[in-house]
Amino acid sequence: MGCLPILSLLLILCLFSSAPAAGQSAAGTARAENDPRAESDDLRRSTVKFYTVIKRPNFYEPWQLGYQQNSGGSGCILEGKRILTNAHVVSDQVFVQVLKAGDTRKYTASVEHVAHDGELALLRVEDPEFWKGTIPVKLGELPRQREKVAVYGFPIGGDELSITEGVVSRVEVGKYTHSQRDLLLVQTDAAINPGNSGGPVFQGGRLAGVAFQSYSGSQVENTGYMVPVPLVRRFLKDVEDGRYDGIPDLGLHWQKLESASLKAFYGLGKEQGGVLITRVVHGSPAADLLKEGDVLTSLAGVRIADDGTIPLRGEERVNFRHALTQFQAGETARLGFWRAGKALEGDAKLKRFSGLIPGPEYDKRPTYFIFAGIVFTPLSFSYLSVWDWKDVDPRFKYLYDWALPSASRRQVVIINQVLAHDINIGYHKLNGAAVERINGVPIGDMGDVVKAFEGPRGEFHVLELDHHAGSRMESDYWSDPGTRLVIRAAGAKETTAEILKRYSIPADRSADLN
């Protein structure tokens, strides 16, 4: 069973036995102290429904957009006349409207900031009429196990506000489907369904989190998740300067040190803890400080246990990577590590970091370049997602899971397809092959592809492919792993223009390659 993003919902909870509401409601009616109905009315006034029109990029034909689709979700109103929701509710949007709970008029909204890694987004509505009678939610604290929460939103099957209640069952670091990042999340048995996405989850009348995904299937029941309020606070702080910089990552591969023999081999005593660094990714924040074979023992002064966990609060423990979410990009984190029998420390300047094969991409057009009908594009998670995962070439799966960037290779460039023409006869069935060299030039990224075609080898352009990085050519072409494509240089540029016209393609490259 996989984590499926939930496309619509507004969470607004009434934990009604907490702090009393004071003053008067927006309608001017005096409230009785500890009146749960008054608190519920406030939360209802904070909840909105999303109507989103989206057009997603086509990663197989990257010069095109996909079909227009309608989606939805939920959200809540924050101070400063902003609306909070999930990133996936508004990703690849072309038009967004919001509807207040109990209202009949939809208002046009604009996206202000999106945190695709942390599954959050902020929007604004310019029409002052929208804000009349609204009450901003107040941020609460990270809930604990067995504490009651309420989810407000607009799940599938109705236009009226839905409120479901449950308890917190688990707090842990887990996978965010939208971004494929491992971040802190809170599990609850409160019903979270498609349409609840982006809706507020309340505890004691304050925002405890934002509903964003759930498990479905015959073997799981009542398993929904929220982005917890600490990550909401982090997001709001990140965008205070007017831009979103992202959640930093160290760029490490590591393994647990639960084996006594493994610890002894690296010179650690029984009471010393940490995780073994197995790879340090080129260009990552940790690259100038750590190296393979080091043992990371602490992060920001917090000791890391042999199983890779750190204390959260009390007896609760979570994966040590959660500590990175306490930092903003550009800040430094103190790392403690063990190397060659010595305890050392050093500072790593943190930043958002992506590996060789980037994860899911949104709100941007794919990169591509076409020459003589050969379509080049970088390998990415979004490209692989064009197919059912079981049908993805195993070599590409391996590259996505394990391949690392280097100084000479920043992207894996592939031939996506060949647009048939006389100039490329013999290669029409080639697709999904990784490119190693063009005209003798090693290909480290898409920019290298463009430059390489400026210098043919005499009368020809020569492309060298790496079959070990995937290719779907007919079996006859698999005999030599150093497969070459050769194109006559004379007239190739003119032929490219002819091919673009034949296939109604507006340009030979994406805007980012101009």
Provide the descriptors you would attach to this structure in a database record.
7-stranded antiparallel beta sheet, single chain, flat, 514 residues
Structure description:
By secondary structure, the chain is mainly beta. Helix content is 12%, strand content 35%. The chain has 8 helices and 28 strands. The chain has helices at 36-45, 87-90, 229-238, 260-265, 381-384, 394-402, 446-452, 492-502, and strands at 3-5, 47-57, 65-78, 82-85, 93-100, 106-115, 120-124, 148-153, 162-176, 181-188, 200-203, 206-215, 224-228, 252-256, 275-280, 295-299, 302-303, 309-313, 316-319, 332-339, 342-349, 369-371, 374-378, 413-418, 433-438, 441-442, 460-466, 484-488. The strands form 5 sheets. Strands 22, 23, 24, 25, 26, 27 and 28 form a 7-stranded antiparallel β-sheet that branches. Strand 11 and strand 12 (206-215) form a beta hairpin. The relative contact order is 0.11. Residues 1-33 and 469-482 have low confidence and may be disordered.
